[in-house]
Amino acid sequence: MISEEEALDFAEEFEQEAVYHFQDGRIHLVGRSPRVRVALSEPEKRVHLIPDTRGKPILTGDSDYIWPEILEWAGIADLWCDHDLWDKYDVNEDLLDHCNAACVDSHIVHVNSPGGSDETFSIFSEQPDLLKTQMKERTQQLITEVGS
């Protein structure tokens, strides 16, 4: 196992925004710049609002956790569930890539224990209300495709 400082040095070398650090049975998200350490009270729900040098993302989190959160934020989570869009479409590729008000940035966050790495996504928008509208319109297009 490597120390938190070694993990952050590694993150800086590979231009990662943060690392997960496991200590005393708790998970911490440690930001590289600025160096901020946050104990995660609900490690099973690793989605966080964090500051970023390019502005504040709407959401930042692990790929497995962020997609339901971003759909909830946009007010379309129920539509995705009611029309089984989860089974046919990818939120990043089939939804956000079609919304020009969204900017999705992904990074690999290296985990020092129990090992491995995870991909995290940050979703930025200078026009969050427009992004919500675009996400709703694109979701309606996907619902129409499913019905065809």
Give a written overview of the molecule.
The chain is of the alpha+beta class. It has a domain at 46-147. 39% of the residues lie in helices and 25% in strands. The protein contains six helices and seven strands; from the N terminus they run αβββββααααββα. It has helices at residues 4-13, 63-74, 77-82, 85-88, 91-95, 128-147; strands spanning 18-23, 26-31, 37-39, 47-48, 59-62, 103-110, 117-124. The strands form two sheets. Strands 4-5-7-6 form a four-stranded antiparallel beta sheet, covered by helices on one side. Strands 1-2-3 form a three-stranded antiparallel beta sheet, with helices on one face. β6 and β7 (117-124) form a beta hairpin. The termini are far apart.
The largest sheet has its strands arranged as: 4-5-7-6
Report the span from N to C terminus: 52 Å
* Main sheet summary: 4 strands, antiparallel
The run of helices and strands is HEEEEEHHHHEEH
Helix content: 25-40%
Tally of strands: 7
- Fraction of residues in β-strands: 25-35%
User: Structural class from helices and strands?
Assistant: alpha+beta
Radius of gyration: 17 Å
User: Which word captures the global form?
Assistant: elongated
Low-confidence stretches: 43-53
The count of helical stretches stands at 6
Task: Give the mean pLDDT.
Answer: 76
Describe this structure in a few short sentences.
The chain has helices at 4-13, 63-74, 77-82, 85-88, 91-95, 128-147; strands at 18-23, 26-31, 37-39, 47-48, 59-62, 103-110, 117-124. With 148 residues, it is α+β, with helices and mostly antiparallel strands.
